[in-house]
Design a protein that fits this description.
The complex is a heterotrimer of chains A (372), B (144) and C (501).
Chain A: E1 11-20, H1 29-36, E2 47-52, E3 62-68, H2 71-84, E4 86-92, E5 106-113, H3 127-141, E6 145-149, E7 154-159, H4 163-169, E8 179-187, E9 200-202, E10 205-211, H5 216-224, H6 235-249, H7 254-261, H8 266-271, H9 275-287, E11 297-303, E12 306-311, E13 320-324, E14 327-331, H10 334-341, E15 346-349, E16 356-359, H11 362-371
Antiparallel strand pairs in A: 1-8, 1-14, 2-7, 2-8, 3-5, 3-6, 4-5, 9-10, 10-11, 11-12, 12-16, 13-14, 13-15
Helix pairs in contact in A: 1-10, 5-6, 6-7
Chain B: E1 4-6, H1 16-24, H2 31-36, E2 47-51, E3 54-58, H3 67-71, E4 77-79, E5 86-88, H4 98-102, E6 108-110, E7 117-120, H5 131-134, E8 141-143
Antiparallel strand pairs in B: 1-8, 2-3, 4-5, 6-7
Chain C: E1 10-14, H1 24-28, E2 34-36, E3 43-45, H2 55-59, E4 65-69, H3 82-94, E5 99-100, E6 115-117, E7 138-140, E8 163-165, E9 169-171, H4 181-194, E10 198-199, E11 216-220, H5 229-233, E12 237-241, E13 252-254, H6 261-267, E14 275-277, H7 287-300, E15 307-312, H8 317-326, E16 331-335, E17 344-345, H9 346-351, H10 356-369, E18 377-381, H11 387-396, E19 400-403, H12 405-411, H13 433-436, H14 441-465, E20 481-483, H15 488-494, E21 497-498
Parallel strand pairs in C: 9-19, 10-11, 11-12, 12-15, 15-16, 16-18, 18-19, 20-21
Antiparallel strand pairs in C: 1-4, 2-3, 5-17, 6-20, 7-8, 13-14
Helix pairs in contact in C: 4-14, 8-10, 11-14
Classes of the chains: A alpha+beta (372), B alpha+beta (144), C alpha/beta (501).
């Protein structure tokens, strides 16, 4: 596995997400098919998947997907982990030898809980805050170990390669989940780094992203001054921290969080006839200036309740949304959506700066769970 | 009609208006040449009045009911009924200076050697912005 | 009177072929250098009196005049150059402190010129400001760290009072007294018509400027000149002036000659009396005293206006700025060593304080590290020459920039540094009615509005080039800067990478 870069690398990308709103689980084949039609959008230097609903047997534990530079890195982590968390179970992430996939890191997963005693004297007494700071500690201080994902009942599988061989390498067809999001990458430098592939994840928020944030420096310093040191020099890392900060810690709704990140332009705010909304938008822009994402981006954010697609205020990068039956889709190209389930019932390009949120329909999820 | 107005509070007493008035009526192409030709140096039609910090540039007001026209015994001073501009014809002028005595503003100047009226503002031929206005560095003269 | 040994500074060159002896130069010179001979109308110059203000040169209708700085006089000496010797001669003759005006003229490092801005190429598109809205709108004041909503989704969080700027450039503190009413009027009206603010300095607000109160940042300085309830009320923000970049650690001194009847009424001091601002505020001997004054002003204005604290950038600017934020300042203004003044001792101006770039780099980083950067806006001052300097300051972390000298140059100042004499031939730093007439505020307003508009256009172009459409995305975005010609330590303080990395 290559070393971590110490500077920012621009990249272009292809993205796709498929959600079954009823919570019915399916394997990786559909999302891989979607990614296959967007081969042009990657260059084989990074691809990855995030899937939600894969660990029902460990649904109450946080699943830490670990990429270690080598066995020594994993050993260091093994030594550290019990001092911070309670490890309920751990195992190697199963893989199979795959042509074109090489230099893989040591891949391991730990199912952990936050022991009560760890929160004594911690302010605020919040196990998720504690977990986030533990992950930040591992990424910064435990040499050779990197947390690829950390949410409950979900996991990130990523590496250097095109999406199809990455899926094959990780044996993704053996997993079942209700939400799959995938990404293929076109980094502009040579040599990929496994950890540098997307998705990026912190707790249940995972991000795939096509774009290049001109505002990266501002956004990075904004999340950093809120306790999220950025170690990976990628936009997606920053966006995932932003979702965690805004949605979990600031308790903003997803729509409000997206508004903070892609608020309307002043021109439009000035013209807004609804004074209550005008006040809200002004307040958002004043307060969350550091969270405003600028430059081209199209993001798919996955979380435990569904997925969100949203684009920059000028719509400089593409993202299409579609619905068919119980399924919702987001993809860089509408063709990718057609490749999965044929013509959708409804499809539309996402508007500049306006998020599209697809959520699990709780009633249906409940009835499904009942019938199982 | 358009007139030249003076803004006393912004007149800085530099007298560039006088200098450019002379140049405009000199017939020369450059300022330096005009002033080198001392024989034919015209008198300025605009004069800066100054006392302490108070100063302003004054020239013919082109009065509607112009007393100079009424006073002229030779028919040299006329008012164009179309444009309202008061003209002075040097050929007809006999140098009686009645106009000078009648002008309430002191806008008509005399030539002591020739004994005639030598200069009176002609709005620079009524074409474009008069030279004094154009070259006032502080917009203390306006033409409106 | 013994012979003066002060070497003349300027050569007044009059081209005899061009001079028409019109006398404009003699009428414009306020220093007695240009003279007309009443006998024959010939013009001549007494070069020893020339201050190099360029008024005669600019007004000469034939371009016959040139005023140039004299070369080194006498035998060359790298240390004891003419400037050093002139200063000594002046003091040997006057026995006084050397006084000067404007910002330091020593060749201090200009970090702005060692910083380069970024632009988009291929991987992200630049944005065309002719086609897309480019936002320079900036708010100054304390921001909450988050917004809380009630059950119905209505925001519960209330924002502290804010200044709203259409361009993050403010006219910095220049008091009526140090500058003429025409100059103050030009600044006030241009600020109001351009969507930004002007700062009264410590001279009070002249009654004719009261109508621009909603664009005024009113200063409360150690002399408390002109501070009344009405003054505080009729303002957009109140600024406590602790220090000034051109004279950190010392007070202010408006010579009695400049205290005209009008200045006296505005400042509430006797006509002709020197206006002395003490070096410290005698009610602020520590940070908790500052907090008391901040809250006294907040109370006095009903918490309706942001309170700014202006400090000079000195060695320990970081804890001072941080202290000001913790003491409740909504805006912290910092003035660097190149900051200007209407009158300051030369030795102080040229030797006390640190460059604003380094102060800004350090303060912004520390406030972010402490998680209190959002609690106050940072406004920086001290030698901002153009829109690129402003952009670089914003990328380093400033919210807005104060411009003083640049605005005065826009009004006609030619940087002769003789503001303290009260004989400004451009009608700016003077109260002499013969001279103040020279600045027509109609022209002044137009020129200042043009200047701000031009900078705004350039800033939008640069923003678009960096692939952004909002100044919010540049504020503190040090990724957009690269440095050259700097030591590793300087780069570290500025938080920027060297060019090529």
């Amino acid at each position: 596995m290559h070393r971590l870069p110490d500077f920012k690398i621009p990249a272009a990308c292809g993205t796709a997400g498929i959600l079954d709103r009823t919570g019915r689980r399916f394997n990786s084949e559909d999302v891989v098919r979607a990614m296959s039609v967007m081969r042009e959008r990657g260059n084989g230097l990074g691809a990855g998947f995030v899937v939600y609903g894969i660990y029902p047997e460990h649904a109450e534990e946080y699943a830490l997907h670990i990429m270690a530079m080598d066995q020594a890195g994993l050993d260091r982590l093994r030594e550290y982990l019990p001092t911070a968390l309670e490890v309920v179970h751990d195992e190697e992430i199963p893989t199979r030898p795959t042509p074109t996939i090489h230099d893989e890191p040591v891949l391991w997963r730990f199912f952990v809980r936050v022991p009560e005693k760890r929160l004594v004297g911690v302010e605020p007494r919040d196990e998720r805050d504690y977990l986030v700071s533990t992950i930040m500690f591992i990424n910064q201080e435990v040499e050779g170990a990197y947390v690829a994902s950390s949410g409950k009942n979900m996991g990130v599988f990523k590496g250097v390669g095109y999406p199809e061989p990455i899926a094959e390498f990780y044996r993704l067809e053996e997993y079942l989940g209700h939400l799959w999001v995938s990404h293929t990458r076109f980094p502009t430098n040579t040599g990929g780094w496994w950890g540098g592939a997307h998705p990026f994840d912190v707790l249940e928020w995972s991000i795939v992203h096509n774009g290049e944030l001109s505002s990266y420096g501002v956004n990075k310093r904004y999340v950093e001054s809120n306790g999220y040191p950025c170690t990976l020099f990628t936009d997606s890392e920053v966006i995932s921290y932003m979702f965690d900060l805004l949605c979990r810690r600031h308790k903003l709704s997803i729509e409000m969080a997206c508004l903070a990140m892609a608020c309307p332009e002043w021109e439009d705010i000035d013209r807004e006839p609804d004074l209550t909304r005008k006040h809200l938008l002004t307040l958002m822009r004043q307060t969350y200036a550091g969270a405003l994402l600028n430059g081209p981006f199209a993001v798919i954010a996955g979380y435990d309740g569904g997925m969100v697609g949203f684009c920059d205020r000028l719509k400089l990068r593409p993202l299409a949304a579609a619905i068919k039956g119980d399924r919702s889709y987001l993809a860089s190209e509408e063709a990718a959506i057609w490749a999965v389930d044929g013509e959708p019932e409804e499809s539309w390009p996402i508007d500049a700066g306006k998020p599209v949120v697809f959520t699990l329909e709780e009633e249906k999820v409940a009835s499904l769970a009942h019938s199982c | 009609m358009k007139r030249i107005y003076t803004k006393e509070e912004y007149c800085i007493g530099c007298r560039l208006c006088e200098i450019y008035c002379i140049f405009e009526h000199s017939g020369h192409q450059t300022l330096v040449k005009a002033f080198r030709d001392e024989e034919n140096l015209p008198e300025p039609a605009v004069m800066v009045e100054e006392e302490g910090p108070i100063s302003f540039a004054l020239q013919c007001r082109h009065c509607e009911d112009a007393p100079c026209v009424a006073a002229c015994i030779a028919g040299a001073m006329t008012r164009d009924p179309e444009t309202g501009v008061v003209h002075h014809d040097a050929e007809k002028c006999v140098g009686c200076w009645s106009c000078v005595m009648m002008c309430p503003f002191g806008g008509i100047h005399i030539d002591l050697e020739e004994g005639k009226v030598v200069s009176k503002c002609d709005l620079c031929g009524e074409e474009g912005i008069p030279a004094c206005v154009l070259h006032c560095p502080n917009e203390a003269l306006v033409y409106e | 009177m013994p012979l003066s040994l002060i070497p003349a500074e300027f050569n007044v060159q009059r081209d005899a072929d061009l001079c028409i002896e019109c006398g404009v130069c003699t009428r414009q010179c306020a220093h007695g250098c240009q003279n007309i001979d009443p006998e024959d109308g010939s013009v001549s110059s007494d070069e020893k009196l020339c201050v190099g203000c360029q008024r005669c040169v600019t007004l000469c209708p034939t371009g016959a005049l040139q005023v140039v700085q004299r070369a080194e006089q006498g035998r060359y000496h790298a240390v004891w150059n003419t400037g050093a010797r002139r200063a000594i001669a002046r003091q040997a003759e006057s026995g006084g402190m050397l006084l000067t005006g404007m910002g330091a003229d020593k060749p201090f490092p200009l970090y702005w010129d060692r910083l380069f801005l970024n632009a988009s190429q291929v991987t992200n598109p630049s944005i065309d400001p002719l086609r897309e809205p480019m936002e320079l709108r900036t708010f100054l004041g304390a921001k909450p760290d988050k917004i809380e909503f009630d059950q119905q989704g209505k925001p519960l969080t209330k924002l502290s009072p804010q200044l709203e700027l259409e361009i993050p450039v403010i006219f910095s503190a220049m008091s009526y007294g140090s500058i003429s009413l025409s100059a103050a009027m030009s600044l006030a009206r241009a600020a109001a018509e351009s969507g930004t603010y002007f700062n009264t300095g410590e001279g009070g607000l002249h009654r004719s400027l009261a109508q621009y109160g909603s664009n005024a940042i009113v200063q409360v300085a150690s002399g408390r000149f002109g501070v009344t309830p009405a003054y505080l009320e009729n303002s957009a923000a109140v600024e406590i002036k602790i220090g000034q970049g051109a004279k950190p650690g010392i007070g202010g001194h408006l010579p009695g000659e400049k205290v005209s009847a009008d200045v006296s009424a505005t400042r509430m001091i006797p006509q002709g009396a020197d206006a002395i601002s003490p070096a410290p505020h005698h009610d602020i001997y520590s940070i908790e005293d500052l907090k008391q004054l901040i809250y006294a002003l907040k109370e006095a204005t009903g918490y309706s206006k942001p309170i700014s604290v202006k400090i000079a950038a000195v060695h320990n600017v970081v804890p001072i700025a941080s202290g000001a934020v913790r003491a409740g300042a909504d805006i912290v203004a910092m003035d660097g060593v190149r900051g200007g003044s209407g009158a300051t001792p030369t030795m102080i101006r040229d030797n006390v304080g640190i460059p604003i770039e380094l102060a800004l780099g350090a303060v912004d980083a520390q406030l972010r590290k402490d998680g209190i950067r959002h609690r106050a806006s940072l406004v920086v001052a001290g030698g901002f020459r153009n829109s690129a300097d402003v952009m670089k300051a914003i990328a380093l972390g400033a919210d807005a920039v104060y411009i003083g000298t640049a605005a005065l140059i826009g009004l006609g100042c030619h940087m002769c540094q003789k503001c303290y004499t009260g004989k400004c031939t451009w009608g700016i730093a003077t109260q002499d009615p013969y001279l103040t007439k020279r600045l027509n505020p109609e022209i002044g307003v137009r020129r200042l509005k043009n200047l701000l508009r031009a900078w705004g256009l350039e800033m939008k172009e640069m923003l678009g080039g960096m692939g952004m459409n909002s100044i919010d995305s540049l504020r503190g975005n040090r990724e957009m800067l690269r440095g050259i010609d700097m030591t590793e330590q300087e780069l570290e303080i500025l938080g920027v990478l060297p060019a090529g990395r």
